[in-house]
UniProtKB/TrEMBL annotation:
Dihydroxy-acid/6-phosphogluconate dehydratase C-terminal domain segment(s): 371-564
PANTHER family per UniProt: HYPOTHETICAL DIHYDROXY-ACID DEHYDRATASE (EUROFUNG)-RELATED (PTHR43183:SF1), HYPOTHETICAL DIHYDROXYACID DEHYDRATASE (EUROFUNG)-RELATED (PTHR43183)
Source organism of this protein record: Polynucleobacter wuianus
Domain Dihydroxy-acid/6-phosphogluconate dehydratase N-terminal: 49-359
Chain spans, region Disordered: 1-20
PROSITE patterns: ILVD_EDD_1
Biased composition regions of type Basic and acidic residues, renumbered to the chain: 1-10
Protein name: Dihydroxy-acid dehydratase
Amino acid sequence: MSSKPKDNKTPPETGLRKGLTSYGDKGFSLFLRKAFIKGAGYTNSALDRPVIGIINTGSAYNPCHGNMPQLLEAVKRGVMLAGGLSMEFPTISIHESFAAPTSMYLRNLMSMDTEEMLRAQPMDAVVMIGGCDKTVPAQMMGAASAGLPAIQLITGSMLTGSHRSERVGACTDCRRYWGKFRAGEIDETEKDEVNDQLVASVGTCSVMGTASTMACISEALGMTVPGGATPPAVTADRIRVAEETGACAVQMAKEGLTIDKILTADAFENAMRVLLAIGGSTNGIVHLAAIAGRMGLEIDLDALDKMGNETPVLVDLKPSGDHYMENFHDAGGMTTLLRELKPLLKLNTMTVTGRTLGEEIDAGPPSFKQDVVRKIDNPIYPRGSIAVLHGNLAPGGAIIKQSAANEKLMEHEGRAVVFENSEDLANRIDSPDLDVSADDIIVLKNIGPKGAPGMPEAGYIPIPMKLARAGVKDIVRISDGRMSGTAFGTIVLHVTPESAIGGPLAYVRNGDRIRLSVQNREISLLISDEELAKRANENPITPPTAERGYKKLFLDTVTQADKGVDFDFLRAAKMVGKTPSK
Ligand code: FES
C-alpha cells in the first residue's frame, strides 16, 4: 500500500497533490492533507486514484433535487467501477420558489461558489449535479471559469399528475389553473385539489421550462453523456445515466478533457439551434450568454434570430405544444431530436465522452415511430421559438417567445397602460377602476437585472382581473424582466437597457402608443426622439445601489440581459469572438 514514488521525479500534480494549501512547504502540505483524509479511513491505494469531485446540491428547500441521494450513490458507483476516487462536496442549491427575491439574484453567487470550490479543492474532474432552473447554468458558468474536466448530471424531470382525469404538470398547468381561479372558472376547493397534483414527484418541472431547456442545452453542448437530458428523476434510466456519468468523469480526468475543449463557439451554436427547435425557455438565452461570456464569447442575438428562419420548433412539449418531458424521453429524447437536426448542426464539436457530437448521433439507437419530435418538414411551429426585437424602446434588443404567443397580437399597436414597478402592479392590476382594455399594451418597469433586483420572472404580467373575468386570455405585455419558460402569451421580455438604468422603457407614460411587429422585429414607442430626450432630461434616473454585502456586489457589477446578467468581473478577461462564428 506504499505510495512512494519509484524514481526521483516530481510526481505530476494530480489527485490529492493538486492545489495544495499554502503552508510554505509543499511536502508538509501534502503530508498534512493525507493525514486528515486518512482520519476518514482512506488507504494510500484509494488516495492514489484520479479524484472525482461530485457536487451535491441536495437541500430540503429544493424538491427538484429530491433524488440526490440515489444519484450520488450511482455516480460514486460509476467512479469506483472506472477506477477513480469520488469526493462528494456541497455547494449552494437554489430552488425557484424558495429563493427571495428571485432565484436569478443568486445564480451568480452559486456560480462563484462552484468556481471557487473547484479551484480550492483537489480534483481531476468534477461531476456537477443540478436540475432546477438556475443550478445548471450556475454550475456550467463556474466550471467554465475553473477550467478543469467537468461533466453535467441533470436531476431529471418530475412525473405528471392527474386532476379529475386531466393530466397536469408544473408549471404550465400551475399558471393555467391559477388563471382559471382568477377568472372565477374554478373555486377555492378545486384550486386546493389541483395543488396536490401539479407536482407528482421529486424532479424538475415537467414541461419545456427553463430546467428542461437547460438539460437539453447541456446535452447539445456536449456536457452530458448521450441521453443525459431527458430521463425523469425517479426512473432507472436516470440512475443509469448517473452511473455512466461517474465513469465518464474518470475517463475525462485520465485524458485531460478540459471544459474549454467542449464549450467552443460551435458548441454554443448547436445549443442555440437546439434552444430554437425545442421551443425552449427565453431564460435559456440569458444563461447561454452568461456561460459563453465565461469562455470569452458573445452570443450574437441577431444571428440567433436569423437561425430561427431555418430552425422550426420540432418538440411538441408544453407550453408551445402538448406533451411533457417523460413523453420526450419515451420518444428517444435528445437522440431523436439531434438526428432530426443533424443537417443544421456543427458535428465536429467535442463531447464529454471524447467522441464528437456527430459520432454520438451516429452511434445512437435506431429511430422509431413516435409523435413528440416532429420531422423537420412537419414542425409544430414553422420558425424558431424566439424572435429578437429592436426599436427605440429597446436599443439593446428585446425578445418574444413567438411560439407561445397569440398570432393575432403579434402585429399590434396599442395604448400603454404603465406600472412603475412590481409593487405598483400588485396594488392596481386587479382594481375595478383600472383604465384598461384588451387592445391596450401593459408596460411594467423596473424588473430588470438591477431594477428588482435580479430580473425576476415577473414578465408574465397577469391579465387584469376585470379583463380576465370578461374572458380575455391574452394581452400584449412588455417589461425588462424575464418570464418562466413554462409561461405563455404575447409577452415582450428582456427590454435592454432596463428602465432602472435609464433605458427608454423608463420614460413610457400612460396613453403613449406602442407598436409591436414580430414580423418586422420591431418594438417602438411612437414618440419623437426629441420628446424621448426631453423626458430623460426632465427625470434623470439614478441606478440603484446598496450599502453592503452581496446586494452591493450585485447592483454594482451585474450586466444587462444581452451579457447574461453575469457580474462584469466574472466574464472572461478578454472576449475572443462571437457565436455563431459564421
Ligand atoms: Fe425547479 Fe421548476 S421549480 S425546475
